[in-house]
Specification:
alpha+beta; 35 strands; 6-stranded antiparallel sheet; 21% helix; 701 residues; single chain; 29% strand; 17 helices
Length: 701
């Protein structure tokens, strides 16, 4: 068979579109062919030694193909998010699905109910269990003719999908009061699932990785802090088991979280409207990304042992950079793998001792070596590292520290407090801040991958495909969302993009679940005078989305940080989302938000504002220490805003006034990147959202 230069050319055709975990039918990891290594090897050996003459006949190869597929797919396989410890959505029909061989009959036994289904021509099967009340733990048994899967410790409860960018991704450690919270976090009725990051040009049928775990001090530490607190409070209030699916990625726009079916209809992607999927729309950009991704997976520094002292002494041409700092000043806006090396000279007394290596922060992931031995690796956004060095690694004299830093998006490098970059041996700290050698090994610049709209992490649907689409048949109670920082420069387009995403996900799941989100916190320098603000415009776009049914918002402008885009107080964020959920999803008759602007009227040189959600009355958050409400600005027909004073007139009305504007026409509240002085709340203590009464053009696209 002349076309069989690679032994089995049909393998690649059969596995088109496969991910890291193999192909859509009988997906396996290993050799990249869709078959396990041992099976591919055995098939090759048999064909070569026993039936090579028959392989000259093309029809025979087809028979082999069919036989192999039937063998490979006989065992039942299911998406990774079906696992021990999972939570299934209560009070809704429960879909269970997976893959097996063609014409296979699969039965599912759960909570006293058994249902069966056959596979289709692609080997996919699906059953639907009836709606059930909350409870558990239960066991699930899935049986085929040749295999069986058992899942244990399953709960029926409410499943919440938690998504967005870095403030949703941010782990419980480090946040305010995290150590006490982590120590007390054990809760068998709270289950956690972290979706592994995945960029995909195709809609995937399974996640790249992720399995359910019980909430314990060991599992809560690295889980999303906002999601954890939200789940904790909702579980405590409802008494119902809660499952949290964290599918988030720092530094991402809203566009890649939205399906291609929706995004191709927007003005932004109009030029791609005739392309039927993201892969076709990306074209040449995807090829560059795939080459870049391959280089990341086969890093030259790892293959050539850049981290070994005997190699390092022979290498020349490494540049130098002060560490700690982000690498943008030296390398520009690049992402990918960059190696850093330095040496530290130790006395004879340090030889062979246990030690500790401290790194203040790494953006985003690292693999760290000392004297050629790996001592730690962390895949965590900007988290400090503390790596224990075992006995026998350190030596007297010169010691080589080598770190491969991987940055996904935005700024990268080893950065933070220089005092926290040190090697500690026998109680003595050796500072490591200073000139380090560095060398890029696989970066976006090297492979022509740019950070514009064609970059896969910012291109429409690429995160939806890999991190949301696989879940769309899995029942959920609702969604919590924390994203928008990346879209602030294009806040005007967010007015369309955000409602589009909400409708899109509801369409994919097939029902109108509650959708709750966090409004952007205060961030950046405090302005002395009123000014235009892209972050204020993004908050306005978030406000506008409340017109959609079953939506809610947590306002957190009072707990931001001027110097950190990631405010560490995540407890209050989760609590406010919980209040919103109790009202929107659980029908509680509570006030779930601060005062909301309703209307305005002119009263001479004053403007009178009327609010909803007053909850017993409007009041200053700071016990009226200024004698009036702060955060308001006012303007006349010239559209020049000045700071104003405001007073509560009655339970839901406020008067706004300034001597500088005798004929006011518009009022704004909290209209700034960092509205630090807002103090309007209701009797529940929840802050009012920033707003404006005008519709004058802003500064964003």
């Amino acid at each position: 068979y002349r076309r069989a230069a690679p032994l089995l050319p049909f393998e690649r055709r059969l596995t088109d579109g496969c991910g890291d975990d193999g192909c859509r039918v009988g997906r396996f990891s290993g050799n990249g062919t869709g078959f396990p290594d041992w099976l591919a090897h055995q098939i090759g050996r048999i064909l070569k030694n026993a039936i090579a003459p028959l392989a000259m006949k093309p029809f025979f190869l087809s028979l082999v193909t069919i036989a192999v597929l039937q063998t490979v797919t006989a065992e039942i396989r299911m998406p990774k998010f079906f696992s021990d410890n999972m939570v299934l959505q209560r009070e809704r029909p429960i879909r269970i699905w997976g893959w097996a061989s063609r014409n296979e009959s699969v039965s599912v036994l759960f909570n006293g109910t058994q249902v069966s289904a056959g596979t289709n021509r692609m080997g996919r099967w699906q059953v639907e269990l009836p709606a059930m009340p909350h409870g558990g733990p239960y066991e699930m048994i899935i049986r085929g003719s040749r295999s069986e899967i058992r899942f244990t410790n399953i709960l029926l409860g409410d499943v919440w999908l938690c998504s967005g960018q870095s403030n949703m991704e941010w782990p419980l450690d480090p946040t305010t009061g995290c150590e006490e919270e982590i120590a007390a976090s054990a809760n068998p009725n709270l289950r956690l699932l972290t979706v592994e990051k995945a960029v995909s040009p195709d809609e995937m049928e399974d996640l790249k990785g992720g399995a359910w775990v019980e909430c314990t001090p060991e599992t809560s530490r690295s889980f999303s802090a906002v999601a954890y607190y939200f789940g904790k409070f909702v579980q405590r209030e409802t008494g119902v088991p809660i499952g949290l699916i964290n599918s988030s990625w720092g530094g991402t726009d809203i566009e890649p979280w939205t399906s291609w079916e929706t995004m191709r209809k927007t003005e932004q992607y109009r030029e791609y409207a005739d392309r039927n999927n993201t892969r076709a729309a990306m074209g040449e950009s995807l090829k560059r990304w795939e080459h870049y991704d391959e280089a990341l997976q086969n890093d030259p520094g790892e293959k050539e042992y850049w981290y070994k002292p005997e190699i390092a002494v022979r290498q020349k041409g490494w540049a130098k950079m002060y560490v700690p700092k982000l690498w943008e000043d030296e390398l520009g806006e690049i992402n990918g793998n960059v190696w850093f090396r330095t040496t530290v000279t130790l006395p004879e007394s340090a030889s062979g001792q246990q030690a500790l290596l401290s790194l203040p922060a790494v953006d985003d992931a690292d693999v760290t070596y000392l004297n050629g031995q790996q001592i730690g690796t962390t895949n965590g956004y900007n988290r400090p590292r503390r790596y224990a060095i075992p006995e026998g690694v350190l030596r007297a004299g010169e010691n080589l520290i080598a770190i491969r830093v991987f940055d996904r998006v935005a700024a990268g490098g080893i950065w933070g407090d220089a005092a926290e970059l040190y090697l500690e041996v026998g109680g003595k700290r050796y500072g490591l801040a200073g000139e380090w050698e560095y060398k890029p090994s696989a970066t976006t610049a090297m492979y022509g991958v740019t950070m514009d709209a064609t970059h896969p992490n910012n291109f429409a649907a690429l995160l939806y495909n890999g991190m949301i689409h696989p879940l769309t048949s899995y029942g959920i109670r609702g969604v919590i969302w924390y994203q928008g920082e990346n879209n602030a420069p294009r806040a005007r387009s967010y007015r369309q993009l955000f409602p589009n995403l909400i409708r899109d996900w509801r369409t994919k799941w097939g029902y109108e679940f509650p959708f709750l989100w966090v409004q952007l916190a205060g961030y950046m320098a405090i302005e002395d005078q009123p000014a235009e603000s892209s972050w204020a415009e993004l908050r306005e776009a978030q406000n506008n989305a409340l017109i959609l049914p079953a939506t809610g918002q947590a306002v957190i402008t009072d707990i931001g940080d001027a110097n950190d885009i990631h405010p560490r107080n995540k407890r209050d964020v989760g609590y406010r989302l919980c209040r919103s959920a109790l009202k929107v999803a659980y029908g509680r008759k509570i006030v779930a938000s601060g005062p909301t602007y309703r209307s305005m009227e002119h009263d001479g040189n004053r403007i009178i504002l009327t609010f909803g959600s007053a909850d017993g009355g409007l009041r200053p958050a700071d016990d009226n220490r200024y004698g009036y409400l702060r955060g308001f600005t006012i303007a006349g027909a010239d559209r020049k805003f000045v700071r104003a004073k405001a007073w509560v007139l009655d339970k839901n009305r406020i008067a706004v006034f300034s001597d500088e504007v005798p004929e006011p026409v518009a009022v704004r509240y909290g209209w700034a990147d960092n509205p630090y002085d807002n103090n309007l709340t209701n009797c529940s203590g929840l802050p009012a959202s920033p707003f404006r009464t005008d519709d004058w053009p802003g500064i964003t696209r």
